[in-house]
From TrEMBL:
Keywords from the named record: DNA-binding, Transcription, Transcription regulation
InterPro entries linked: HTH_MarR-typ (IPR000835), MarR/SlyA-like (IPR039422), Tscrpt_reg_MarR-type_CS (IPR023187), WH-like_DNA-bd_sf (IPR036388), WH_DNA-bd_sf (IPR036390)
Domain HTH marR-type: 1-115, 133-265
Taxonomic lineage: Bacteria, Bacillati, Actinomycetota, Actinomycetes, Kitasatosporales
Species of the source: Kitasatospora phosalacinea
Gene Ontology biological process: response to stress
PROSITE patterns: HTH_MARR_1, HTH_MARR_2
Name of the molecule in the record: HTH marR-type domain-containing protein
Pfam families: MarR, MarR_2
SUPFAM superfamilies: Winged helix' DNA-binding domain (SSF46785)
Molecular-function annotations in GO: DNA binding; DNA-binding transcription factor activity
């Protein structure tokens, strides 16, 4: 859906970073990463890539040399303007499988997962319920992701990010799968997947080899170290999932998954 309406020049995480900088010019790199719900390592690599592409300007904070301050370049501001219409279409299309009542229901559920005050949801949806629900969902997903990131760091730790865990988990399910297939299973775009696999290979968690029948394809498998880390992290991942849904009543867990699966066309 993103590639259809927005294109391939910007990924959704890259757009999130540029949008944060459009709203908060001069913010430090850590703050931008938190707003865009990106872990420290992913944020550092993404900023480096956006700087190389001339979309983001980066400088040291004169008051604290350890901090990097970011701003949009003119090209970055133009990229945000050009992509925004497509992003709005993605948000509206995401909701298409849901009826008006279901749209409001999923917004209220996501707001509770995001730990927002009850009054905040009313402000978002009371004026023009269906339209405002469509606009609110992107914000709620980002805030819920921030909650997930915080829980992940508390219960799983910093050895694996959630996307890295998804890659290792996919490889345990599909050992020897090609890189593209693993990226699809882990819901990662091509560029992010390529960088993540390189990082996991460097850490000795993933083994990579060329497909002997097609030299363009990389085949991946877990190393013993990667498998051990995956198994060691699994209990914490379950705790994250339970804590994330804790604001909901038990019967609402199923309903939340039903609505999210329907929106995702699963």
């Amino acid at each position: 859906m993103w590639s259809e309406y927005v294109g391939t020049e910007l990924t959704a995480p890259q757009f999130a970073v540029l949008l944060v900088l459009a709203l908060e010019p001069g913010a430090d790199q850590r703050t931008v990463g938190e707003r865009a719900s990106l872990d420290k390592a992913t944020m550092a690599e993404m900023v480096a890539r956006l700087v190389r592409r001339g979309l983001v300007l980066r400088r040291r904070d004169p008051a604290d040399g350890r901090r990097k301050l970011l701003a949009l370049s003119q090209n970055g501001a133009q990229a945000v303007r050009e992509a925004t219409g497509g992003v709005v279409r993605v948000q509206r299309t995401l909701f298409e499988p849901l009826g008006p009542d279901e749209q409001l229901e999923i917004v209220r559920i996501m707001a509770r997962i995001a730990r927002l005050e009850p009054g905040a949801v009313a402000v978002m949806t009371d004026a023009r319920p269906t339209l405002d629900a469509q606009r609110a969902i992107g914000y709620l997903i980002r805030v819920a992701q921030q909650v997930h990131t915080k829980l992940w760091s508390e219960k799983v730790g910093t050895e694996l990010t959630a996307p890295q865990y998804a890659v290792l988990d996919a490889l345990e399910t599909e050992p020897g799968a090609d890189q593209r297939t693993v990226g699809e299973l882990a819901s990662l775009d091509k560029a992010t997947m390529a960088e993540m696999v390189s990082r996991l290979v460097r850490r000795g968690l993933v083994l990579r080899r060329r497909d002997p029948s097609d030299g363009r394809r990389n085949l991946l498998s877990l190393s013993p170290t990667g498998q051990e880390l995956l198994h060691r992290s699994t209990a914490g991942v379950r705790e994250v999932q339970e804590a994330l849904l804790a604001p909901l009543e038990p019967h609402e867990h199923v309903r939340a998954l039903e609505l999210l699966a329907k929106a995702a066309r699963l």
